[in-house]
Amino acid sequence: MKSFGYLLLLVSSSALAQQQAKVYLFFDTECPICQAYTGRLQGLYQEYKTQATFEVIYPMANVSRKAIRKFNREYRFKMPSQIDTDHALTKRHNARTTPEVFVFDQNGKLQYSGAIDNQFFELGKARPKATTFYLADALKAITQNSVVASPRVEPVGCLINRRR
How many angstroms separate the CA atoms of 77 and 74, rounded? Predict the structure, then answer.
């Protein structure tokens, strides 16, 4: 009977994971804009981690796990991550910039992509504080089964040197 309960728990956990929204964050440890967003993203992760899965994607060929661990310690950035050296995920999502986010609903449909918010509006140009929160608004809409008001906002950041 114990194993049946355990199996039921596994099935329930698996079903729950499939019902969550998914957030992919394309990131670079060396990008100053990515560095500036770590606290804000960590806050969103904490707020939505029961309703969405988050994964940080590092699309640089030269990044190492050691560099990522150092970055995570320095910026107190605690999200699951992977290195995309062959650019499979980068190409699949057509990511071009870091930071750039892609948010999928519970059915796997892309609902939002682009900028995290409007603090950075051009390379080298930023507002003191963001006034529009695209990622937060998208997560709120998706988790409330509402329509995302702005499904695409051009991201500003460091270009990804994509392999062809």
Answer: 8
Spatial separation of the C-alpha atoms in residues 35 and 108, rounded to whole Å: 28
Beta strand residue intervals within the chain, DSSP E = 21-26, 52-58, 81-83, 97-98, 100-104, 110-114, 120-122, 125-126, 152-153, 158-159
pLDDT tens figures, 109-122: 999 999 999 999 99
The full set of domains in the chain, from first to last, is: 21-159 (3.40.30.10)
Q: What is the dihedral of CA 42, 43, 47, 53, to 10 degrees?
A: -20
99-153 pLDDT, tens digit per residue, is 999 999 999 999 999 999 999 999 889 999 999 999 999 999 999 999 999 999 9
CB 104 within 8 A of CB 22: yes
Q: Could you tell me the pTM of the whole model?
A: 0.86
The token pair at 102 is: 């892609």
